[in-house]
Amino acid sequence: MSEPISRSIDPLQRVAELLAPVFASIAGESADPVVRPSDRADAQVNGALPLAKALGRNPREVAEEIIASGALDGVCSSVEVAGPGFVNLVFSDDFLSGLAADAARHERLGLATSDPRTVVIDYSAPNVAKEMHVGHLRSTVIGDALARLHLFAGDKVIRENHIGDWGRPFGMLIEHLLDLGEDVAAAGLGQGDLDGFYKQANVKFSESEEFQERSRERVVALQGGDPDTAALWRRLVAMSTEYFNTVYSKLGVLLNDDDLAGESMYQPGMQATIDRLGAAGLLEESDGASVVFPPGFTNRDGEPLPLIIRARTGGFNYATSDLTCVIDRVERLGADLMLYVVGAPQQQHLDMVFAVARMAGWLPEGVDAVHVAFGNVLGEDRKMLRSRSGDSVKLVDLLDEAIERAGALVAEKNPDLDDDERAAVARAVGIGAVKYADLSTDRVRDYVFDWDRMLSFDGNTAPYLQYAHARIRSIFRRAGVDPSSVDPSAISLVEPAERELALRILATPSVIAEATSSQSPHRLCTHLFDLAQAFTGFYEHCPVLKVDEPVRGSRLALCDLTARTLSTGLDLLGIEAPERM
User: How many angstroms separate the CA atoms of 164 and 162, rounded?
Assistant: First the structure.
């Protein structure tokens, strides 16, 4: 079905491509048209006004010259100058029908690949010997969506799960592991009781000086490379990783063991990082610590703010590790773009790390590091979401509850599903609802976790989109038609509802590209919701199976293209699109 795409499928972009040489001819140099959607037409060319201003000409005269060029012949059924110099466009039915057919022939729905980049995405980042809680949800889900979007764009994506697997707490954790016995501890951790294990070790550390001393000695042994201690540490990491994989599998994200890049991975290179900063003349001493003062950062008193590279005690810290990460990702992995999907409170820290990396030459021109910040998940009281006991909500418990709640809704909506299919649909709906509630919110904002809203089959929710997809597929089952057999060239757009649906579909590649470049999955969510609503309008006004050919074939092809667009969009969000619900 796939055919190469040499020109834009989006009619707005296609018009911009057609008008670019016209604008260049009028301006005498390269000039970009500005083409936007319009309430009064399908599109509006706004670029005539700034072009006329730059040339000192009448904007309406420039607009008339654009029309007279003939560049839009065959593209528009109506072209007129409006207001001070806008050009209103109504696309011809044949033009839109041809674009829709082109999109239907292309497995990527018309999204052309650009020059591929190497994109490193740092996300999820749970801590060894601690359970994943709802605070890890946003990083994991947003990072997974960005990985999928960049893969779809043709980029080489390197997923880095920067787990917390190093530091002082591992002395007490290893000693507690030995006190319990490795097999006993493994049995408990295998059942997901990481929090219990960590709390027990912490209590013991606070109550026993003997345990404190053993723990400190164990940290020294770990940092010194003692083989026995390293083996125990690896066992602890492996048990935790097994738990993480259980959560990732349930959540349906792409992360696996090959993506692990713990803090420990960068320990051997941290001294070299400090040496390189010193050789570059960037290190200074401040209150006994080794620091760098990146320009533009000040404290509350307006004094220069340091990034501490080595503490006064001589130990490394997060800044040292993060700078070593930058070096590794640029110099070893060849990153063109690094995305750090990390909570908003880390903004200043990461900004300072990136600034120092630029000063040191480790972030050269053409390599970008972006903090993909996100807000919090709130409860109904608009405070951080917590369990009834006041603890952080365990992510696995939240996912299990989502599947359970979705199962009840699915059984009520379609009691004819057999047990296996009902279970599969319940998982798709429940997990999809949790993900979509997160991704459909502008990531920089907090959002309130609301079961009733996110599991609703009405409104901007995953179940609504999933049901829209399933409803379209049911049309083909009733017709006894294999969707793969429909002919894309049969698409002929005549009715207003057909045109509206096609315009939504054809905007998809541009929306995907924008969501990818701005790290904003919520833009794709909004588009998919608008698309599903446009299909509802189409289905209400345009019978599919109760009309004769060639209209029947055209509308079946349009239905299939809509379903494929919804399914592809949901997949880019990491959400399944069931065939039946």
Answer: 7
Other CB atoms within 10 A of residue 80 CB: 14
Q: Could you give the maximum distance between any two Cα atoms of the chain, in Å?
A: 89
Check residue 109 and give its pLDDT.
Answer: 82
Q: 226, exposed or middle or buried, with CB in 10 Å at 0-12, 13-18, 19+?
A: middle
| CATH code, domain carrying 306 | 3.40.50.620
Question: Do 141 and 223 share a domain, yes or no?
Answer: no
Residue with the two structure tokens 């309008």: 537
Does residue 288 sit in the same domain as residue 181? no
Three state DSSP letters for 293-326: CCCCCECCCCCECCEEEECCCCCECHHHHHHHHH
H-helix or E-strand spanning residue 153: none
Q: First CA to last CA across the chain, in angstroms? A: 27
Note the Cα 361 to chain centre separation in Å: 29
> Does some domain include residue 173?
yes
Q: What pLDDT is attached to residue 28?
A: 86
pLDDT at residue 4, rounded to an integer: 52
* Domain boundary, last residue among 372, 400, 418: 372
Identity of the residue numbered 321: S
DSSP conformational letter for 134: G
Within-domain flag for 267: yes
| Coil vs helix vs strand at 481 | coil
Q: Which of 325, 356, 372 is the last residue of a domain?
A: 372
- Residue-wise pLDDT for 114-161, tens only, equals 789 999 999 999 998 888 998 899 999 999 999 999 999 999 999 999
Give the total number of structural domains in the chain.
3
Q: By C-alpha distance, which of 180, 64, 189 is closest to 129?
A: 189
The reported pTM is: 0.93
What is the Cα Rg of the chain in Å? 28
Residue 437 has φ and ψ, to the nearest 5°, of -60, -35
The answer to the question of residue 355 being in a domain is yes
